[in-house]
Amino acid sequence: MNETEERDVLQEAPEQPEPPRVRTGAPARKLTLPADADLERLVHETSAEILTAVAADPRLSEDLALAMLNRRDLPRETLEALSKNARLAKQRKIRLALVTHPGTPRHVSVPAIRNIYTFELMQVARLPGVPPDVKRAAEEVLIGRLATIAPGERLTLAKQGTGRIAAALLLDKEERIMRAALANPHITEVWIVRALKSETGTELLAPAVSRHEKWSFRNEIKAALVGNKHTPAARMIQLAGELPVNLIKDVLRNGRLSPQAKNSLSAVLEKRATRA
C-alpha cells in the first residue's frame, strides 16, 4: 500500500466515540415533582424516591401527609423528609404521627417529643406500636413537667398513666393524687418499693401503703415500710414482726433509721430469738 492509499483508508475509518465518564461518589439527585403532579395519587406510591419527593413538596397538605403517615411501610428517608417539610413539621398532628410511627429515625422522633403536649405524651407512652426507647423518652419528658402541671391533670395522669408515670406521682404532695397513683392498674411492687425508699418521698405515702388492702401484704414492701421514717411506729413494729429475720437485719444495716426505730427493730429481733 502506497502513501496515497494509506491516507485514503485513514480518512474512511469511522471515528470511535469517547467512553462515558463515570462520576464516582456523586450524591444522588433528588427527584423534583412537576407542577401538575397529582399528590393525592402519589401518596399511595411504592417508590421510595417518589414518596420522599412527595413528603418534601411544600404543596403537600396536612390531610395527605397524615394519610401517608398511616402507612407502616414508609421508607426512613420519606419520614425524615416529612420532618424537614417546614410547613407541615409545625402541625401538631403531624408531629405526633411522626413520633409514634415505628419507622421514624430516633434523631427525628426523640427531639420532637419535647414539643408535644402533656396528654399526647401519655398517649405516646401507652401506644403498643411505639418503640420502647421512644416511650421511655416520652415518660421522662412528662415526668420532668409534673411540677408545672395543674393538679387536675396530675390526677388524670395518676389514674391513666403508665407505671413509670404513676410511680412518679406516688411522691405527689396531694393525697388524692398519691392515692390515685397507688390504685393505678399499671403500678407494680417494684415502683412502690422505690418510692418508699426515695429520699424525696412525702409523709403521705408510707401510712397509706402500710394499710393498703393489696400492697401491705408483700414482704418487700413491708421491708421498705419498716425502713421508712414516715411509717407509724406501732405499724412499723407490727410489720417487722411479720418479716423474715434476714429482711429485718437488711433494714437495720441499710435503712436510714432513727435511733428509736433501730432500738424497736432490735427488740423485735431479740424477741424472735427468745421464742426460737
> N-to-C terminal Cα separation, in Å?
126 Å
Quaternary status: single chain
Proportion in β-strands: under 5%
The main β sheet shows up as: none
Percent of residues in helical segments?
55-70%
List low-pLDDT spans: 12-28
Order of helices and strands: HHHHHHHHHHHHHHHHHHH
What is the residue-mean pLDDT, rounded to a whole number?
Answer: 88
Overall shape: it is: elongated
Helices, by number, come to 19
- Backbone CA Rg: 33 Å
Number of strands: 0
Q: Structural class, from secondary structure content?
A: mainly alpha
Write out key terms for the chains shown:
276 residues, mainly alpha, 19 helices
Topology:
Elements: H1 3-12, H2 39-42, H3 48-56, H4 62-69, H5 76-84, H6 86-89, H7 92-100, H8 106-112, H9 118-126, H10 132-145, H11 151-160, H12 163-169, H13 175-182, H14 189-197, H15 205-210, H16 219-226, H17 233-242, H18 245-254, H19 259-275
Helix pairs in contact: 3-5, 4-7, 7-8, 9-10, 11-12, 11-13, 12-13, 12-14, 14-16, 16-17, 17-19, 18-19
